[in-house]
Automatic annotation (TrEMBL):
Domain Gnk2-homologous: 26-128, 134-239
GO cellular component terms listed in the entry, alphabetical order: extracellular region
Provenance organism: Rhamnella rubrinervis
Designated name of the protein: Gnk2-homologous domain-containing protein
Chief site of localization: secreted
PROSITE patterns named in the record: GNK2 (PS51473)
């Protein structure tokens, strides 16, 4: 699928739980969002390589890193975010792999982002820190339907809203939780923001993501809205490891 800026930036994918479990190492999606390119062996390219190397060291200890390299027209800004339950070792592995994949998938592009289950990596020639990224996003859903969507959908909204408030109130902008349902089922949820945002903007980003759940995932057993600044995710099976930073 093309990464052209002219294409819609919200994409709806139809993944079953089996695909979710099949290969967590595969990227969920990527977007090459800048129409401008840099040339091989350019100062921008060298600065981008430095940025990737720094983020691979900076992000794993806490799960988040943000850095700028170079000056003026050759300056590159980037961040890496790992899911809050991911170990430092797995975080580093994901960030390194993400940087390798972005070099191939968005060759010589001055702005790109890639998402995995374990991490997100984003860079641009423009300064984007502290700003909600409402452009680069996509949605995933579980193709299986719930038995009673009229009862289930409000519970999804309730859980994700609660987690969004909790996440925006913590230092790591990350929260997970669960809710008891009927027939011994549990609903699991996750909310997370990049830590360059303010608490208020984190909450705003998450609530905006939640508002898009009905359009992509109404009545589905699982779904998520994934963006360049925040993510919300729910499933009827555990979605985190229970360990982390």
């Amino acid at each position: 699928m093309s990464c052209s800026k002219s294409m819609p930036l919200t994409f709806f994918f139809f993944f079953s739980v089996f695909l979710h479990l099949a290969n967590a190492a595969d990227p969920l999606y990527h977007i090459c969002f800048n129409p401008e390119n840099y040339t091989a062996k350019s100062a921008f390219g060298a600065n981008l390589n430095t940025l990737f190397n720094v983020l691979s060291v900076q992000a794993p200890p806490s799960g988040f890193g943000v850095v700028s390299t170079g000056q003026y027209y050759n300056k590159v800004n980037g961040l890496a975010l790992c899911r809050g339950d991911v170990s430092s070792t797995d975080c580093k592995t994901c960030v390194v792999h993400a940087s390798y994949e972005l070099r191939n998938l968005c060759s010589y592009n001055k702005g790109a982002v890639i998402w995995y289950d374990n991490c997100m990596l984003k860079y641009s020639d423009t300064y984007f820190f502290g700003q909600i990224d409402g452009q680069n996003e996509f949605s995933l859903l579980n193709v299986k339907d719930v038995k009673d969507p009229e009862s289930f959908n409000p519970k999804v909204h309730e859980l994700l809203s609660s987690l969004s408030y909790k996440a925006s109130s913590t230092l790591k902008f990350y929260a997970t939780g669960e809710m008891e349902l009927e027939e011994s089922e549990k609903l699991y949820g996750l909310a997370q923001c990049t830590r360059d945002l303010s608490s208020g903007d984190c909450k705003k980003c998450l609530y905006e993501a939640i508002s898009k759940i009905p359009n992509c995932c109404s009545g589905k057993r699982g779904g998520r809205v994934v963006g360049g600044s925040c993510t919300v995710h729910y499933e009827l099976y555990p979605i985190v490891n229970g360990t982390g930073y």
